[in-house]
Amino acid sequence: MPFSDIITITEDRKNADRFLRCCVQQPPLFICTIATTETAAIPGISAAGANAEVIRYTAAADAEALYYGKARCLEKVPENPKGPPSPVIITMATREALDCPMVIVDAGNEVKPQVPMLIAGRQPGKSILTPLPVENAGELLAQGVMIGENLGKLGKTLIMGESVPGGTTTALSLMEVLGIAAFGKISGSMPGNNPSLKEKVITRAMTEKRLVRGGLAAAPLDGVAMMGDPMQAVQAGMALAASRHVPVILGGGTQMLAVAVFISRLLEQKAVDNLPDIHGDRCLAAVNHARLDHLGIATTAWVSEDEHADIRDLARQLPLPIPMYSARLNFAASRHKNLQLYEQGFVKEGVGAGAMALSAFLYLRMKNGDLLPAIEAVYERIYLSD
Questions:
Q1: d(CA 37, CA 370)
Q2: Has residue 128 been placed in a domain?
Q3: According to a count of CB atoms within 10 Å of the terminal CB, is the N or C end of the chain lower?
Q4: Domain ranges, residue 302
């Protein structure tokens, strides 16, 4: 399926093309899973807002913007400290173009957005420097499975994005303990991605918990509980259950690679340990009946082509073959300086931006040049209007 602005990262082109053909047979449904963690409050970890206090509101503001066109919990949607806007503007523009319905799922967000949403978890994640940052990981996985079972029966291709400040750090830590050599290879929301700080924090957390790379590969749910964030468990549960019925696109870069690794490890084990019987049977059924050929990952070219990361190597390291793509977005020709900053390595991805842009390219055969004016219009509406 030749599309000039869809980049196929996966080396198996035949399988990658087959997945896209499968996706386009059903209309899209966008799902955004939100969560907050205390990991994001570690100085320097997250740039998803002008300061630590604003970061607490970022996911809620993103969800409100998706529904109302603007934030309600803040005066405006948080932006990177250097000025580039939230990637939610990309998702908003593509949703409008696709006329795509949406569901918000709360995996454990500290600030509750003023929107209709499904509640999978009420407890935000703690810092990965604490002994058990996601102590309800099993419950979150089960809630995700139940949501995915129902959404999968709607007959739509599910595009699953996220808004989790600090999520690239918890993604990196989860990949490491599940056996992926990810240090120095992840992307992030600032130029250069600040790998040294993230790796220092993760190394400290792993050392204190007596963990090594791959140490929890055979116990992936423990990996989320000890080193992850709430979104990962919910997103994986939804994807596993829904894949039985429809294609699922995991919308994001580093964070969705971590979810894909978690899913792969669950499928390898063919079991989900440490769950009460009421949840264990349901989760085991989701694992046993999941369709790997119905799973894919999509991000932006700002992530896949990031010279300070190596997303292609991470994709090659996936324990099971899940195709990955990126949308060739480019803001160099934008009339707004703050959008042009994306080309300097700021922001890059979030709120399912890459997957939704890819969907516009796939379903509507749009190109970056077609989509950019719509994104600029949303940017002006959110950030420049009185």
A1: 36
A2: yes
A3: C
A4: 6-384
Domain total in the chain? 1
Q: Encoding tokens for residue 322?
A: 């899940």
Residue 17 tokens read as 């093309």
**93-113, pLDDT tens digit by residue?**
999 999 999 999 999 999 999
Beta-carbon count within 10 A of 294 CB: 23
Distance CA 72, CA 64 (A): 6
- Give per-residue pLDDT as tens, 135-162: 999 999 999 999 999 999 999 999 999 9
Alpha helices in 152-187 (DSSP H): 167-177
105 falls within a domain: yes
CA distance 207 to 273: 24
Q: What is the CATH number of the domain that holds 301?
A: 3.40.50.10210
pLDDT tens profile 239-284: 999 999 999 999 999 999 999 999 999 999 887 776 766 777 888 8
Is the distance from CB of 13 to CB of 141 less than 8 angstroms? no
